Amino acid sequence: DVKAGKATIDQYRNTSKLIARGFGRVNLNFKETYFLSASVRNEGSSKFGANNKWGTFPAVSGSAILSNLFDLPGINFLKVKIGYGVTGNIPNDSYLSQFLYAPGSPFLVNGSFIPGYGPNINANPNLKWERKSEINYGLEFRALDSRLTGTVEYYTRTTKDLIFLVAVPQPPNLAASTNANVGSFQNSGIEAALNYAVIQGSNFSWNTGINFATLTTKFLQWNHAYVASTFKQYADVGSPGQNSTYQIRVDEGKPVGQIWTLKYQGVNPDGTWKFQDVNGDGVIDDNDRVVVGNGLPKVTFGFINTFRYGKWDLNFLLRGATGHKIINQYRTFYESPQSITSYNLVKTSKDWSNLLDASKFNDVYVEKGDFVKLDNLTLGYNVLLPTGSKISRLRIYGSGQNLFTITKYKGIDPEVRWADPEDTSPTSANPLSPGIERRGTWARTKTFTLGLNLAF
Fold it and tell me: Does the model's pTM come out above 0.90?
C-alpha cells in the first residue's frame, strides 16, 4: 500500500533524562502538639539548557494543635498550619533548548532534488525550570462530638519562568522562534471542605458535605521587553475568514483570561455589522476592543450526600462553577447567514435575516458559563446472605454519570476551559488563554452502570 500511494509512514523519536541527585527531609514532633517538617530536593533534566539543567526545590511547613492547649467548648479538635514550598515543572517535549532544523524547499544537486533543511528554532542554553512557589495558611477542625469536620485554607501560588515559544527578530537570530522563560503569574484563593453527619440512626443515616474554592488571578510581568511589546494577544479565532482575530488579551498587573473583543451594537441598514466605536475615531479596529469577561471561574463548588436506609444506600454529587465566561466558537462561525453556503446555520436567539456580512467574532458570542451538574448518582442494595454462605457480602448497584446540567450556556458544554488546546506555546494547551469552546468540542456522554460487589 505504501508503494501504491495508499498509505503513509511516519516516525518519531524522543529521548530525555531526569535525575534526582539528592533528597532530604526532617520531621519534628513536640508533645504531639507542635509539628515541623522541612524537605529539599535537587533534580536535573536534559530538557533544559546547558546552563540551567538543575533545580533545587525546598519546602517547609508547621502546625499546632490548639485544642491540646486550650479548652474550646464544642470543639473536639482544632489545628492551625502554615506551609511554603517550591516545585518545578518539566515541559512535555525534549530538545526545546537546542538548535532545531525543519524540512524546507528541496534543491537540485547533480540532476536530483535533495530535501532541504533550515533553521527552525534557535538554541537557548539558558532555558530553565518553570518554578511554582506556594504559601498557604489553614486550619482543620472537628466539632459537635466530631459530627462536623472541615478544613479551610488560603493560598497564594506564584508561577515563574513560564516556557513559551516566542517570535524573535531575524537577524540577529537565525530562526524566527526561540523557546524561552518569558513571564510569571499568580493565583490566590480560599479552599474549604465541610462535612456533617446530619443523622446517625441505627436504621437511617445521612451524611452531607460541601467543598468550594475561590480563584483570583493576576499576570505579574514579562521577563523581556521584546516579549512584553508583542505578546499581548492570544488564541486566534482561525479559518475560515477570521485568521489573526485574537480572543484573549494578557496585560501585566491584570487578571489572566481576559476575553477581549468588539461590542455588538446591531446591524447597519446595509446589512453589515455595527460595533461600538469605543475611542470615537470613526474607524472600527482593534483599538475599539474591550474586555468583556474572563474565562476563569470566580468560584467552583461541590455538594455530596450519602443516605443509608436499612440495606439501601444512595449517593449523589452535584458540582458546578460560577463567574466565568465562555467563547462559543460554534456560534462565532455558524450563526451568520453567510455561512449557510458551506455549513448548517446554528439555532440562535438573534434575528440575522438582514445580516449580509460574514461571521465576525464579537461579544454576542461570549456567554456566561455558570452551571450545576449532577456528576454521579448511585443506588445500591446489600443482599442479606444466609449463615455459612461462601459469599460474605453481596451488593447490587446502579450508577449514572453526567446525568443533567443546569445552565444558560448555548454551546456544547459549560465546563471551565482552563487552557486552550489549539493555542500551543510551545507544545501544550496555553494556560494564558482559557475560556474558549473550540469547534472540536464533543458532547459529553451520559454513562449508566449496573454492577455487583462481591466479597468472599
Answer: no
